[in-house]
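Spend some time on the protein that follows and explain the fold to me:
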Amino acid sequence: MTESGTLPTIRLMETTGSAEHIRSLHELVVGSSDIHGILNGVTGFACDAMSKVAGENIDCALTLRRRKRTATVAGSSERAVQLDMIEQGLGEGPCLEALDVGHPVLLADVATDTNWPLYSAALAAEGIHSALGVPMDLGETSQAVINFFAPTAGTFTEAVIAEAAAFADVAGSTLRLAIRIETVEQLNADLKTAMSSRTVIDLACGVIMAQNRCSQDEAFEFLTKASSHRNKKLHAVASDIIAHLTGGSDNHLRFED
């Protein structure tokens, strides 16, 4: 390990559990309804996998950052999330540095670490004596990092770190897929909303055209003016007109100056 706490490049090992991880994580994407559920599932898998490799209970948290969105934090337990939030609050630690350098960063022993003294002290107070941050490759628009926490020092040997990096590599491909699916679903939802708004506006224009014997352009201009005068969105004004009509009122809609 270098003085900064970063690790030399480690060649990812082929692990017997990789195929199982891939199947389980991809099933997670299919079975989860939102990205937060997927993140919680990933940390749960990571906790189980790393605890088996390390031979002791490992807590796991994951932070996802996406452009123009607030960071999403998930964990294998509430304690794991709290430990991750401590690092975020202090602005220092292996998890944050791993995001910057792009490879695993180790805090081997909170009793001897000099790189992040405040974070080391905070972890010690929580009964955690070593931690490991492993970044995930999600492309240009997103960042994610997994934080592993161990109750004893020296838990994260080179073999354990290699296993963590291999898991993060597999989980990263799963998250990329999940983010793409969520993006497409959001675009579809936005399109449906836009189409719904367009339909209401078109219907309102039709009502105005019928009642005032005017063109579609003139009817749309009426809607625009009404929107400005009432300080309401165009869709809201159109909805009012449709509601006014279906409510059975005989009042005639006329142009405003």
Summary: Confidence is low (pLDDT under 50) at residues 6-17. Residues 190-246 form a domain with the Arc Repressor Mutant, subunit A fold (CATH 1.10.10.10). The radius of gyration is 27 Å. The chain has two domains: 18-185, 190-246.
